[in-house]
Every structure is written in C-alpha cells, then in structure tokens.
Design brief:
With 432 residues, the protein is α/β, with parallel strands linked by helices. The chain has helices at residues 19-27, 50-54, 67-70, 120-125, 132-151, 155-161, 171-186, 188-191, 217-229, 322-340, 376-389, 393-409; strands at residues 11-15, 34-39, 43-45, 64-66, 77-81, 84-88, 93-96, 99-102, 105-108, 112-114, 163-167, 201-206, 233-236, 240-243, 247-250, 255-257, 260-263, 267-269, 280-281, 285-287, 300-302, 307-308, 355-360, 363-368, 371-374, 420-422, 427-429. Strand 19 and strand 20 form a beta hairpin.
Length: 432
C-alpha cells in the first residue's frame, strides 16, 4: 500500500495488533476505508496463556498467530512491521522506524506493559511476563536454576535457587503461582530425582487483603484456599520493598532469599510519544470519551488497556481484560463509520461477560453474572473459553493435545532450555 494519503478512501492507521486492534480491523472489512496496521511484531499474542508458555505446559508458537494470515481475505487491510516512535497530531502523521506515515484517523491500540512503579532495582532483577519472549525467558531461567540446584553443594544457595516468588495476586499471579506449585507437587521428583518437593517453595505476595480482588468474594476465598492447599505461601496486604537478585524484602520486614521473582503486580499503558500530557492519567493510560476519542483531539482514538474511559458506571475505566479491548475495538469500528458518514455516534457500554481464573488441574474459579462457582466445572469452562478464543485451527489443536497429554501423563515435553537467559545482562546467552 502506498504510504501517501489516499485521495479515494480515508486511511485509518491502527497501532498495535492486540485484541483491540485486530477486532477493530475485522469489523471494518468491506467498508470504504484503507486500514494500515503497524506493530513491532508480525503476530498476535494470546496473552492469557503466556503463563503456560512460561511453565512449559504449551509451545510458544501455540499462542501466536501471524497478523497477515488473520486478514488474508480482507482487501482493505495491509500490515507493516514497524515500531511507532512519535505521533504528530498537527501533521496527521506518525513517525516510525520505517519512516513517516500519514493518516486520516489514528487508533492507538498498543496495550499495556509491566509496571515496576519506578523501582529500577526490581525492574532489573525481577522477571516480567507480558509477551512471548518474556515468557520464554522465565521458562529458561526457572529451568536453569533447577539445574544449578541439582549440582550445588551450598545448602543456602540451593534453597534460594528453589524458592519462587510471584508478586501480584491478580489472575496472572494466581495462575502462575498455581502452576509452579503444581509442577513442584507432580513433576519435580520425576524430572529431578535428587530434588524433593520440600526443597521447592512457592510464595505469592499481594498488596490487597485478598487474591483476585477484582472477582467475587466467593472466587477470591476459593482461590486462596486452593493455593494454600497446594502449598503456596501467601502474603496478603503487603508490598515488595526491594529485590537485589538475592534477597526480596517485604514492607512488613519479611526477608526471602530467592533467585526467582516473577512480577505480575501491575501494568501501565504503552504508547508512542506526541500526545499532550493532559491526556495521560493514572497507569499511563490515555483519557478517552465514550466513543474512544482521545480527549482534545478530533481524529485520534485509543482502545483496550492503553485507554481510560472514565464514566460514572466505571470510575476506574474499562477492566484491563481481553473483553474490554475486544468490545472497544468492535464498537469503535461502528463509530468510525458514523463519523466518516457524518452520522451521530453511539456511546460505548461495557458488557461484563464474567471472569475466569485457573489455579491448577481441575481447579478454577468463575464469576458469570450472579453465578459464582469453582472446581472442576469452572476449570472445564476456563479451558473451553480459552481454547475457542485462540486464533487458528492448528493453535487450537496444539493446545488441546498439550492439555490432554498433561492431564493423563501429569507431565509435559516442553521444558527445554533452548535459549539460556543471563540475568545480569538481561539478555540471551548465545555462547551455550
């Protein structure tokens, strides 16, 4: 596609190929617009299953799907592999690493990244998990430390290598700590005969007084009970003060010697430079109105986790989940066509389809409307919803086979160290 402004059809640039951007572009199929999506990755990531990639439960390729394949039959869509650096509202252009590109309408759908709340020490030594590369880093680092634990003769070092701390008690933190506990209880002694279950400790540290604070009291209590039964040590109502790579300090004075800290404690919006600072609110999100238009701009919009649509019904904005991004993307598609055609726009209304979180095999919690339940049925529902939400038949089949195998064999074949991670340099060690 030519990178000059189309004289025939309005050009809509979408920055980001996440849930919001993908669903927006799909809804604009066969509409009289040009769609250009820009992303620094050429694939869409199904983020809810990143923790399973990190734990070796499924292959990394199973949760990624090429953007170009999603839109093979969509004539008005094109994609460029590019990282947008700056938005230039006065020129109606964006500056990227492949040059300046003009737009008639711009949609920011860049999602969110890990929030370390300004603590550079924790940012260096803790392991985030917001993309496939970071999930693979966790997998490699975890396995590398278990291999070191096998051969070390220093008892203190062995304990630290086998102590895992998950920071953040939301769905990601609960699912990751549950998966770690399940690996300790069902896999550790099989794969590492010289290590014992008692040697491996799993902690979950959460600032709120409960885990899964955004879900019902029923779900929260059930999740905490299930985790504790699996042996997870939970610290509620506390915050991590520091982590220097060897000792994690909690603000109640607790010290934990560990080499493994996985950070799931918060997110912040990820966006290019160029917007007025007055449009940015807490969590580095972009303030938008009820049609997802960025406040103070005529033709710039934001959807998904990077946006903050503050309303009386949603004083904290739309929940930062896949459904929020999907729904705002689909709704914006309708309103963009209304705007282009000179018609009245429609305010967005969020439809809460419920929340699900898994804790381990046959263990999950669910809030569906007024229904709150947990256990096997919630786990089966969680699996069905996530399986159906994956893109591509091959991905669905791969994940289904991996889950079935893990269910019957109680193990997985995906715990391979194919990329050594160096914590000190925060890079892959290609010498091994």
């Amino acid at each position: 596609m030519d990178q000059t402004k189309s004289a025939r059809m309005p050009r809509i640039i979408i920055i980001g190929g996440g849930f919001g951007g993908i669903n927006l572009a799909k809804k604009l199929k066969n509409k009289p617009v040009e769609i250009l999506m820009l992303d620094k990755h050429n694939y869409h990531t199904f983020q809810p299953l990143l923790y399973q990639v990190a734990m070796g439960a499924i292959e990394a390729d199973s949760i990624g799907f090429p953007v170009r394949r999603i839109f093979t039959n969509q004539k008005n869509f094109s994609f460029n592999l590019a990282e947008v650096k700056t938005i230039n509202p006065e020129k109606n252009t964006v500056t990227s690493d492949i040059g300046d590109i003009s737009y008639d309408y711009l949609v920011i759908a860049t999602g969110a990244n890990t929030n370390f709340f300004g603590n550079q020490q924790i940012e260096h030594y803790a392991m985030p998990m917001k993309n496939i590369s970071e999930a693979l880093n966790i997998r490699s680092y975890m396995l590398q430390n278990l291999e070191k634990a096998v051969i070390t003769t220093d008892r203190k070092e062995k304990d630290a290598l086998m102590t895992f701390v998950v920071v953040g008690g939301g769905p990601t933190g609960v699912e990751l700590s549950g998966a770690l506990a399940e690996m300790r209880n069902k896999v550790l002694c099989k794969d590492y005969p010289s290590l014992c279950q008692e040697d491996m400790k799993v902690y979950l540290v959460e600032g709120k007084s409960v885990v899964l604070g955004a879900m019902s009291d029923n779900a929260s209590a059930a999740a905490k009970a299930a985790l504790q039964k699996m042996g997870v040590i939970i610290h509620n109502g506390v915050h991590v003060k520091s982590f220097d790579g060897t000792t994690l300090t909690i603000d109640d004075g607790t010290l934990i010697d560990t080499r493994n800290v996985f950070w799931a404690a918060g997110v912040k919006g990820e966006m290019p430079e160029g917007l007025a600072s007055a449009t940015i609110t807490s969590g580095r999100r972009i303030l938008v109105d009820e049609v997802s238009r960025v406040q103070g701009y005529r033709n710039i919009f934001a959807i998904g986790d990077v946006s903050a649509m503050i309303t009386p019904e949603m004083p904290n904005g739309i929940p930062g989940m896949a459904q929020g991004a999907i729904q705002t993307g689909q709704h914006l598609a309708k309103n963009l066509m209304h705007i282009i055609n000179g018609e009245a726009t429609e305010p967005f209304k969020y439809w809460d389809k419920g929340s699900l979180a898994t804790i381990g095999q046959s263990k999950a919690v669910a809030d569906i409307g007024k229904l709150h339940f947990h256990g096997l049925f919630a786990w089966l529902l969680w699996m069905f919803v996530h399986l159906m939400s994956l893109m591509g038949f091959s991905n669905k089949l791969s994940v289904l086979v991996s889950w079935a195998s893990k269910y019957f064999v109680r193990n997985t074949d995906n715990r391979l160290i194919v990329r050594f991670f160096n914590m000190e340099t925060r890079s892959l060690d290609t010498s091994k």
